[in-house]
Fold each of these.
Amino acid sequence: MKSITIGASEPIPVAYSTEDGNDVLTYSVPANAANGTFRLELIDAEGMNYGANKVTVSSSALITSGADRVISGATATFTGINLDRVASLEIGGTKISEFTEKTSTAISFFAPALEDGEYPMSGVMNDGAEVQFYKNGQVETTTTVVMSSQQTLWSGHHYVSWDLPDDSPNKTFNLIGMDVFAGIKPGSVMSIHYSVEPTAEYHQLRTTTVWWNDLPGTGTIEFSTDGVAEITLTKEALDMIQEQAGFICVGHGYYVDLVTLR
């Protein structure tokens, strides 16, 4: 393809690149493009037109990620589109108008030091219009953010069983990189929230290095209900993680649901 049109626009040149083995088509939306949803048309070198999907053009600041959970008093980064047009945000009544980064696709700021909990969040653009938030498939002008004194290292629902083959991704929980632990201060406490697999005959959890050596002060945890394992990351433990290829959880019959740091 040589160019595209958006609705009734003039042809817009396109560029191609490859990311992760996929062809990517890139183009610049004209600054005077009207807001709305329009049909795309692809135009090849011979001038032939081909119908494509619809695209929504918006001049509004839209935050698409990062706004679900924020660490109190720490730097928060939101990503989206037209974020260089954000004048201020408000979280739980605290106005934020100073940003450490502000580009068209990202804004960063120091989050207010609020108590743990859920708070309403909204924002205003330079022209006085409301900032938009994309959440659960909907675009809203207000959202709810969880303020926490704990940093989330990972969240999900990852099954663990040492009965599985060595090449199974669920043989262990190995989803937090060594670079994360390189930046952790000794004495920090890591909390591993786990839930049981009800069909498993037994439930055991160990926190080890990739070499399957237990971290200092830890051992086998046997359980029959959901719970939290807390590990104090001493200098010895952090050094061990770096020297033995990283951190993993091993055992059988449970899911890792959340890993936090305080």
Amino acid sequence: MTKTALTGVRVFDGAALTEPTTVVIDGPLIGAGTTGAEVFDAAGATLLPGLVDAHVHLLTSDDLRALAAHGVTTALDMACWPRERVDSFRGRVPDIRSAGVPAIGPGGNHAKMPGMPEEAILTAPGQAAEFVARRVAEGSDYLKVVIEGDLLDQATIDAVIAEGKAHGKLTVAHASSVDAYQRAVRAGADVITHVPRDGVLDAETTAKMAARGQVAVPTLTMMDALTTKLGADGYAFSRDSVTALHAAGVPILAGTDAFSAPMLPLPVVQGASLHQELALLVEAGLSETDALRAATDLPARYFGFSDRGAVREGLRADLVLVDGDPTRDITATAKVRRVWAAGEVVA
């Protein structure tokens, strides 16, 4: 593997852009000395850590290629089965993690999805231990529970999350209504994905999340697509809920809910949608710097990736070179010039 020195590049350091500098890619890591390095003139461009999409659904290898082409070097899958499909995506670009099979209630929209495994459907808290044990045995990286109306009662939600934590797993709750959010907060989910479409989150709920260190992945791209499909005005509730979460100090991570199956009139496509998500987060009140962190160091921190999320010596050389200054214009993240994943150029 060659050694490359990116010269004249401005680097996003988590707070701002540095003055033009040199960044060395040494094998799979970010290195130091330039001796023997092939020089790549990056003058006028900005170097970002590899982007993280904190909510995708993987279906085919084309999904991986689309993600990587748009600078996503780590993708967090939030429901994929069977185990063999999940395993076929591991060790590739982007680097993926997965919840595997989610816990859902009977009769709802998720239970009606084609091919949903019967074992996903829980009806009582006593089923949680076996469900979680099977996910752990399959290699799921975290546990996901879908809170959809009252299809899962609070005791079952609590039991799944408690079992996940007992196994040392991060727990993720799907919640797209105010009531579901409150249930997820009450149960102690580490991460709550989506935001309500039926109202704005109240101050008590957002304050509890902040105090407990719970994290939000709003997926505004999907919330926008859903409200367009339904002909409703719920997107304003979703956007304003992000504003409320951010104002309360709840960490916001960038995730899209991208899925390549043709389910929506405005599909949330892999890769490109993350750049849309960042722009929507800025519209909801995050600064450009906050939005960049939502797709870099914050998901790395909260999902336990100590080897990525920043441009720093010794970390994985997951890097995205873009034209422009995304700390002033967030749409610059989409102007991808080159992507490296573990030091290798992504074709």
Amino acid sequence: MSDTLAETFEAQRDRLRAVAHRVLGSHADAEDVVQEAWLRLSRQDAATIENLEGWLTTVVGRISLDVLRARKSRPEAPYDEIIVTVDDGASPHEDAELADSVGLALLVVLESLGPSERLAFVLHDLFAVPFEEIARILGKSTAAAKMLASRARRKVRTPSPPAGSLQREVVQAFLTAARDGDFERLLRVLDPDVRLTVDTPDGLVVVLGATNVATGARFGAARDGRRVLVGGLPGVVAWREDGTPLSVVAFTVVDGRITNIAAVADPVKLASMDLPEPPGTVGGAR
């Protein structure tokens, strides 16, 4: 491997890591994917590569796709990288670590996508990779790649900025209305097209529309939980009586209404998350 090629790869490393991280939602998995891409490049005759950047993107995309498909047969969402902190009212805008985190809402929604949908959406919408190139990675036609990204786009809402006072007020109004059983008030704070996604031990449960969410959702635990920031978004953590986590819920608020509610209720995934202590324990006071 020539020094020049190694230097060229290093110049691409950050971009490749970012692609893999957004596809997989895990820094560790992204590092493994980039390292594997380097190994494959080291075994390749560089003279046969016309466009090194495109070649590396294709390789990283295909390796990431293999990882996603393996997860579907052995579910293992990387929720350990979600940053959950006690909501003390401070602005997290300057938190660099938070800015680089994968939000719970996006991760839960991405987990609901098929591997091909997820790859097509991330590569095209987040990294502007042409559909022709995505089609080659997927082994599908360009039209099929466009369809996959379009289908994913309908499920993924644009993330809102980190929590501000208005967002917190909207979420509090929702929780209060849920506590009081005030159906009309629930409808006023929910976007008509709100999406509720719950990651349970039996798989993902998705509820669409304000009426369905207001009618069928159960937020008793969330009402009494601890206010937190989940990847910068206002949220709630609830615990069982024995101190084990029951659920983590994150709310996305756009233009004064809740557009997305993402919840994790799978004990295995909750156990992997670094959560605040429950109230009443050492360091766990509200």
